[in-house]
Amino acid sequence: MSLVLAAVCIAIMVVMALALARSFSSPTVYDRILGINMFGTKTVLFIAVVGFLMGRPDFLDIAIVYALINFIGMVAVLRFFEYTAPVE
Amino acid sequence: MTELIDLVLLAMLALTALKIIFLKDLFAVVMLFGIYSFLSALIFINLDAVDVAFTEASVGAGISSVLMLGTLALTGRTEKENKRSSLLPLLVVTVTGAALIYGTLDMPPFGAANNPVHEHVAPRYIEESPKEVGLPNMVTSVLASYRGFDTLGETVVVFAAAIGVLALLGVRREKTDNVRQSGFTDHYVLRIIAKLVIPLIILFALYVQFHGDFGPGGGFQAGVIAAAAFILYALVYGLPSAFRVVGPKFLQGLASFGVLLYASVGLYSMFKGGQFLDYNKLAVDPLAGQHYGIIIIELGVGITVFAVMLSIYYAFASQTERGNT
Amino acid sequence: MNFIFDYYNYWVVVFLMMAGFYIVISANNLVKKIVGLNIFQTSVFILYISMGKVSGGTAPILVEGVTQYSNPLPHVLILTAIVVGVATTAVGLSLIVRIKRAYGTVEENEFENTDDAI
Amino acid sequence: MFILDIVSSALLIAGVFFGLTGAVGLFKFPDFFTRIHAASVTDSVAAILIIGGLLLQTSFDLNTAKLLFILAFLLITSPTASHALAKSARHGGLLCLAETTNKPTDERPHD
Prior knowledge:
The complex is a heterotetramer.
Chain A (H helix, E strand, L loop, with lengths): L1 H23 L4 H25 L6 H25 L4
Helix pairs in contact in A: 1-2, 2-3
Chain C lengths: L1 H25 L3 H23 L19 H32 L15
Helix pairs in contact in C: 1-2, 2-3
Chain D lengths: L1 H27 L3 H24 L6 H30 L5 H6 L9
């Protein structure tokens, strides 16, 4: 079982790396935000899987915080982006 | 497995830092800084520091990024082309980095159990704190009980920072008769979902506040999460609506109340015949006294951090809304 | 090989520190300087937490049947340092907002052209 | 227990598969609105499958409740975030592929 969890863990890290690469080089600024959002949701799953892999799944609280902050950060980015959008 | 995860995460962290150096779009810089904080919090989890990861994820990634975004809205989002040569800074950085790397060679190897760090007070904390304080979470016992004086200092520093920000920026209350439309007026889905999510976040903040003795969490984290819920409300529904829910004046009172609550526990224990912040004297049974003391001071920390973070956000957001009409 | 595994964590931390330091001394924009300071700060946090790690240990929250815990002391120090760090960041950012209002710019090399009146 | 483990592994692997396809779609799809589709749709399926797989490994205690909370929260917020992002992009004047090929003017879409 832990073999499967380890494999899943590595695969999620690959997805995270891809999302990070998307946010590094993106055609539009919205793609960057999209990559960052995907990175955030994947880290939530990553923490959950790592908790089970290490045998201490009682740290799922941190995954909840990630989900919360990811959502609030996303809203904040969109909100302040509306203010900053006109580039002189 | 731990080493592998550590290595991959550190590599991502290094790449993110490199990317931040070369980006000129400050908006992207701040978003990548949010990712940087998230990644470092993942490293903290991997290195067993769950409480620290909790704090970094909520404070570093959440509040810092939001404040930086608010500043960018006022100062413009592109960095101007730098005409100075970057050779000298590069030289300085290389020399300093080489010196530091030379210094690390004298450090004890990473992760060894007999490093000097682990042989001073740490064994006592690990072995005695469950008996002396009676809490399973050693970080909370050290933070609130053994180093309670230090934590009082940190709370006062946070409070002082709020005073500094408010003195520099101030919160302008807009008159109620000419409230501009602010917030996401046309994002109906977002408005409904925010209404649904905010109670959940506040509930979770209360859970973190009172479960911090047994799992990761505590006053600092809970205060920030509760502030994040109200920040979400202010972002979606606009600042004037948020002022009607929690006013800036009320928050200033709340911030000082938290610090006073913390300090009054210390004074009360002196009054009962112990030292300052000596929780053993708070009740007949020392263990119960420790428990009362920790719950009350964590509450004080939580209230102060909540009020400070929210007033700092108010200060920045009212500048932004005023500057962009 | 063992040598690398003993120290790579510290080396990456030094690299991150220097990345933050480079941003602080070379960037022109004050907001970017604050980001650089924060990167530097976070790398110091990682250094402390790395020192507190014990191989084979687990998080310092008591569970039955485990005797090897990581060192809780660095965790406590860094936990409060993070909160104080964000508080000082907020003060720095509000100074930047005031600078923008007084001088009309947040680029370091443009200050020379304005006089000292606030 | 053996069957539960197999089902759980299958769910986890399926979830990771969807996560990977979403990440590939982030690079392969031609314009922003198709990319957001790839990312968000596979994202929610991956979240359901992976957390479902982990749920089978808990023993119905506090962790189960926390996992369910995470799942519910992700299912509420992540589509909302994608929706808000797409709407902002549309508002900010981003065109989808069909519009850019049919009329190459830069005019802002009225919504």
